[in-house]
Amino acid sequence: MRGAVVQKPAKTGRWYVVIDLGRDGSGKRKRQWHSGYRSKREAERGLTQLMSAKDTGTYVPPQRMRVGEYLLERWLPAIEQTIRPTTYSGYTRHIQRYVVPRIGALLLQDLTPDRLSVLYRDLVAGGGVNGRPLAPNTLRRIHASLHRAFRDAVSWGYMLRNPAAVASKPKAPSPGSAKMRIWTAAELRRFLEHVAEDRLFGAWRLAASTGMRRSEILGLRWIDVDFDASQLAVRQTYTNAGAATMFGEPKTSRSKRTVALDVETARAMRSWRTKQLEERLLWADAWEDCGLVFTRENGAAIHPDAFSARWGKVRDASGLPPIRFHDLAPGHCVGLASWVTTAKELLDG
């Protein structure tokens, strides 16, 4: 017998593939069992693949490595220098928070598509904060992380097949299943009136009028702002990856762009520039000159998490329906566009 498929217990149990590896030095026959097959047909396909690998010298015996060990100690360190720090931070966060506590103790080669599907269902049911359902986008990112991790495991000889490739994938919400909440023009006007005296009013106004991302606003430098032309250039970002923060370039060439400033936004940024110069005089030699538009009182960069926390406070204090900061981007299209014009249009007109 070179190989066979076996069901244990008979008629009701799971399917296994048994490979005959010949005899050891003492003459004792060696057999290797492979688990993780959902049906006899799947086990038979697995047997064919394993026998082909054995015949071509590419057969990989099962590893005793566990899922958590592979992900945290093998895979993440191996890819860290090949991807963006923010991508690495996202992979790490997803694996530590959602994957390892649930399936980290499983043997790597015992991880089946069914078990991954169960993981996804558990996360949908109560994987979010305080047991709430996990957001669909987060679930899809977790699946993408695992798909890449186990694809690499196959390439490196730790697994025979990628369970994420055939697991029941998280479904994207249908276009009508959940309506994104954005502010109306009146609500947006009310918010900007509410934060008119806030120290970061210029940032809130800029986000609402241009749709710039948090990382782009925090990375914006004065050298990238042209008041004469009423525009700015998006050339730098400021992000955090775990505990670390870093300056970088926008992700894509399309993200590097020129953004027009409407009259009121340009006025708000000029006013902020004056306020920032006053703070610089107050701090004197202790001022940190990093050239950024939006800074802490001492001139240092604003931590992205601190910026998000500040956004949450001023948004909630406004009494308006809660929206996410990046929802200001689509919101400005139906909001500010109805009641402001760009300075360039005024000059041309």
Number of domains: 3
Do you know the CATH architecture of the largest domain?
A: Orthogonal Bundle
What structural category characterises the helix and strand content? alpha+beta
Classify the helix fraction into a percent range. 40-55%
Number of strands: 8
- Order the strands across the largest sheet as they lie in space: 1-2-3
Question: For the terminal residues, how far apart are their CA atoms?
Answer: 87 Å
Q: How large a portion of the residues is in β-strands, by DSSP E? A: 5-15%
Poorly predicted spans:
174-178, 341-349
Mean pLDDT: 86
CATH class of the largest domain: Mainly Alpha
- Major β-sheet, in short? 3 strands, antiparallel
N-to-C series of helices and strands: EEEHHHHHHHHEEEEEHHHH
The value of Rg in angstroms is 28 Å
CATH domain fold name of the largest domain? hpI Integrase, Chain A
Q: Please give the count of helices.
A: 12
Supply the CATH superfamily name of the largest domain.
Answer: Intergrase catalytic core
The coarse silhouette is elongated
Describe the protein.
- This protein has 349 residues and is an alpha+beta fold.
- The protein folds into three domains: 3-56, no CATH class; 67-165, Orthogonal Bundle (DNA polymerase, domain 1), CATH 1.10.150.130; 185-348, Intergrase catalytic core (hpI Integrase, Chain A), CATH 1.10.443.
- It is 45% helix and 13% strand.
- The protein has helices at 40-56, 67-79, 85-103, 113-126, 136-155, 185-194, 201-210, 214-219, 263-283, 304-317, 328-334, 343-348; strands spanning 3-8, 14-23, 29-37, 225-226, 231-234, 237-241, 244-248, 257-260.
- Strands 1-2-3 form a three-stranded antiparallel β-sheet, covered by helices on one side. A three-stranded antiparallel β-sheet has the order 4-5-8, with no helix packed on it. A two-stranded antiparallel sheet has the order 6-7.
- A hairpin with a 4-residue loop joins strand 4 and strand 5 (231-234).
- The longest helix is centred in the C-terminal third of the chain and has 21 residues, at 263-283.
- It is elongated, with a radius of gyration of 28 Å.
- 26% of the residues are buried.
- Mean pLDDT is 86; it is low at 174-178 and 341-349.
